[in-house]
Amino acid sequence: MSRPSDAVRIYPAEKTLEIGRMIHTIADSGYAEGAPWTARQYEDSIRQEHVYYFVAEFDGEAVGFVGVGVVGMEAEIHSIAVSGNAKRQGVGYALLSHLTHWLSEKGVEELYLEVRESNAPAINLYRKSGFHIIGKRSNYYSLPTEDAYVMKKQL
Questions:
Q1: Would residue 114 show up in a list of annotated catalytic residues for this protein?
Q2: Whole-prediction pTM value?
Q3: How far is CA 6 from CA 55, 59, 61, 143, in A?
Q4: Which of 42, 52, 53, 126 is the catalytic position?
């Protein structure tokens, strides 16, 4: 795959079951442990009122997504993934840049996320995107059990 970061198209996901299934497929490809949620959980999440998903597309193929919950002036990234074949091509950075711009326009001031303590590539991406570690959640993840860093970005 050629470097898609300049040619990636990011758009708001429709709140449909089909989009929920597509997001699950991307997550299953993007996470080393497979998708952290079931297809049904993504379908349920995408239909929630204050939850928004954005999809990254390159050459007509959906290659990544980010899902965020927004309450007042705070937001939390629920899930973000890039397909295995599009990793380290700038798609994740493009998704985060698009999301933070969109949230800023909505008046959101703080953005949070959790990340596996061992996920150095993701931590580096988040730091590059302006996040910093503010805490830790013990045994937050399962399969395998692992602590999570809590990261925050001031918008």
A1: yes
A2: 0.91
A3: 15, 12, 15, 35
A4: 126
